[in-house]
Amino acid sequence: MNKLVIFLCFTGIFYTSGQFANNQLDKIDILRYDFHIRINDTTDYIEGKTSISLKRKKPVKQVVLNLKNRDKSGYGMQVLSVTDNRKNPLKYKHLNDSLFVFFSKNSDNDSLQIIITYNGKPQDGLYIRHNKYGKRTFFGDNWPNRAQYWLPVIDHPSDKAVVSWVVTTPKHYDVVASGRLGQKINAGQNFIYHYQTNVPIPTKVMVFAAADFSIKYFGNLKLHRNSVPVSSWIYADSPVSGFDDYKCSITALQFYDSLIGPYVYQKLANVQSNTRFGGMENAGNIFYMENSVDGTKSVENLVAHEVAHQWFGNTVTEKNWRDIWLSEGFATYLTDLYLKHRYGKQRFIERMKMERQKIIRYNLIKRRPVVYDETDNLFRLLNPNSYEKGAWVLYMLHQRIGDEKFIRLLREFYQTYRLKNAGTEDFIALAEKISGENLKFFFDQWLYRPGVPFLKITDKIDIKNSLLRIHVRQKGKIYQLKLPVRIKWQGGQTDFVLKINKQEQDEVLRLPKNFDVNSYQLIIDPDVQVLFKTGIF
Predict the structure, then answer these.
(1) Which of 407, 400, 413, 489 is closest to 446 using CA atoms?
(2) Going from the N-terminus, what domains does the chain have, and what CATH number goes with each?
(3) Cα distances (angstroms) measured from residue 101 to each of 82, 83, 129
(4) Residue 7: per-residue pLDDT
(5) Interval 481-514: pLDDT, tens
(6) Angle between helices 424-435 and 440-447 (to 10 degrees)
(7) How much of the chain, in percent, has pLDDT values that exceed 90?
(8) Interatomic CA distance for residues 178 and 167, integer angstroms
(9) Exposed site from 26, 287, 315, 398, fewest CB < 10 Å?
(10) Is the whole model's pTM more than 0.85, yes or no?
């Protein structure tokens, strides 16, 4: 066995075992992808050419890209050639769903360009199928690491890049893609669409779509630092009233732009699709499930969530998959704040109550912390811990540090990590800096500990001494909680806070003179402010 084969065998095992990590983060930085894709109406095979501009951080001799091999059933990609920008052939090896490209001996520069020509039939990542009306469609669906099924990339959110698309397609299709449309070229029986981003984005949200669309432009939305064209793309066979199902994206854009900071993308296209998810936050062109278009405007919560991702998830992107709550938890809580802004406090409280119950139900089945390393299946990270519990962590932090500091934290976190990557530790450090508090125990108990607090609460009236005695017992690990309690009776009420920090503790409250023992109620957490489950005995 020659040295090259031995190297590839061991390196292939290394990259396979670390399939959810970016093992080249300190060695390679992808600066730009230029994707040329040709689709057709007769087969599911695509023709691709990808030009990759990269920078070497260390003097490495190769880059390892993720790209699925063609399998026995015919799915996967076949590499036809790899060259540098001068058309000089480069040595490469494509095995174990990894494309190893070896740099030329003459390539002393740190900045390099490689060009990969390939073709194949995607098994995933690019969905080629018929929509609900029987029309053929093409939709990119890369989350979490499924770009590699049809694109040669470093398929990890930690390496963001500028992207351009050149999509050659039969003329009856309309094409939407990451970035802004630069050209639409008439090429015989085809159109060639050119799209280009002006900021880097992660591979999970760089996509295109081709379908028979009807398109409605809502004009350029004036935000506080820029002007953004907003549009709806629905199937040509969908009812025209469906355009307005996505119109609420305008109010969501305005709200988040004002609350957090400037929207960075060149457009916002809301696209009816038939991909895997109910909604997918592709940068600047969000894909929604095809049944979201029905003319009833019933998907505002979904639209608000996906628009929020344009700030957190896309512009500020998690460093690693374990930090996914920085995307999903943030988008969930920002949706809660948006609905509070639009419809008032009661709607917000109802949402938080619903989310709390969802967290409790999930944690009866799966006891996992919010932040943990998933080693088998990244789709398992899409659960109420990363969404609703992540949102509840932000909600409780919001209450703890106050409105002014929390909004400042959102804005500084966004500004500091705008177009970059952030980890949970980065957010905690900034939260401590802005709040002026040591928040280690707060985040330890809510992010790194599985489950939720379980409290058993008993109360007893001491009529002789006009006292209310409350006994609290925590089951399991001790949480530090400030639990609001309301005593309500006919003709009055009083509120107080239980400071819980022991396995068992007693609290005594002196009752008011007009207290009516026969009509009183003990209401735990009346305004839904704490994440816990309880029994009252």
Answers:
(1) 400
(2) 1-211 (2.60.40.1730), 216-310 (3.30.2010.30), 322-447 (1.10.390.10), 454-536 (2.60.40.1840)
(3) 8, 9, 32
(4) 35
(5) 999 999 999 989 999 999 999 999 999 989 888 8
(6) 140
(7) 89
(8) 12
(9) 26
(10) yes
